[in-house]
Amino acid sequence: MSRYRNLSLFLVLAAVWGSAFMAIKAGLGTPDAPGGFFEAPVLFAAVRYDVAGVLMLAYAWYVVDDPVPRGRDEWATVAVGAVLLIAAYHAFLFVGETDPAVTSAAAAVIVSLSPALTTGFARAFLPSESLTAVGVLGLLLGLAGVVVLADPDPGNVLAGGAVAKLLVFLAAASFALGSVLTRRIDAGMPIESMEAWSMVGGALVMHVAAYGRGERVGDVAWTADAVLALAYLSIAASALGFLVYFDLLDRLGAVEINLVSYVAPVFAALSGWAFLAETPTPATGAGFLLIFGGFLLLKRRAVRAEWSRVRGEPTR
């Protein structure tokens, strides 16, 4: 019964997080039909986390005895989370998705590189741990997947949404680096408190960035699509999505829950096709296979151990 429950929640999380890429596109609009937050993508991300941050903070206050960060290490963890995990990740992602060449599926596939990048950054910040030759191959394979997905025109590297896809790649890299730095600080802070305060701080950082970019509330066209997308992203994808994530993290562990990054693109492609008439390209599929192959090479030992545990076999 527990296994079916975990599988159901895993698929729900993949569906919610995968369809979030479609919701971002829907809330932004397109150059041909600009609406919603098209002229203010960073403000869109900021308002999303205004709502999600308040909801998560209320939840943290309910489940954690002392949800307020204490000491330099805990505040440093929140700062890293706010700047990299929330602000940089979402600002790059939302701006990247304003380009129609970046479909919901393409964005989800590029973001799925994050677990592989996390391993690479972990090796860089922990000199005692070096990547093996197979690990280096896995990282290069994942990066090759992004290049295939970007499909740059040799005659004009700025064409075909290459720059926008690079921004989405920077989003994935920001999230990966933030994950490594929070582990390096190792403040022992409850994850609910860390996520909540990071969301609130990240929203503030993005409001400042949006103002610096010249984005104003007056630039927003409050269409029905924009309001629905904002509500879905704030409540379903962020607040409820992270609650499911916390629950599965405790039950499944980091390796299995990381696999949600590789199931989410399927739901991103389906929702993009159903609601936005997006058609995934062969490059999207090829890029996904390369990135997933790189992940399996990088995490081969952990995946093998996890597979043995699921099958009830003794680990070696």
Explain this structure to me?
This protein is mainly α and 316 residues long. It has one domain (2-310). Helix content is 76%, strand content 0%. The chain contains 13 helices and no strands. It has helices at 2-28, 41-63, 71-96, 104-111, 114-125, 133-150, 162-185, 191-212, 224-252, 254-258, 260-276, 282-298, 300-310. Helix 5 packs across helix 6 (133-150). The chain is globular and about 55 Å long. The model has no long low-confidence stretch (mean pLDDT 84).
| Mean pLDDT reading | 84
What class do helices, strands and sheet pairing give?
Answer: mainly alpha
Count of alpha/pi helices? 13
Largest sheet: none
Count of domains: 1
Q: Which shape, going by the Cα principal axes?
A: globular
Give the CA-CA distance, first to last residue: 28 Å
Please report which band the strand proportion falls in: under 5%, 5-15%, 15-25%, 25-35%, 35-45% or over 45%: under 5%
Q: H/E series, N to C?
A: HHHHHHHHHHHHH
Beta strands, count: 0
Radius of gyration: 19 Å
Helical coverage, percent range? over 70%
Report the uncertain regions.
none
InterPro entries: AA-Vitamin_Transporters (IPR050638), EamA_dom (IPR000620), EmrE-like (IPR037185)
Keywords: Membrane, Transmembrane, Transmembrane helix
Transmembrane segments: 46-64, 76-95, 101-119, 131-150, 162-182, 194-214, 226-245, 257-276, 282-298
Domain EamA: 9-149, 166-298
Quick recap:
This protein has 316 residues and is mainly alpha-helical.
Keywords:
EmrE-like; 316 residues; 0% strand; AA-Vitamin_Transporters; mainly alpha; transmembrane; EamA_dom
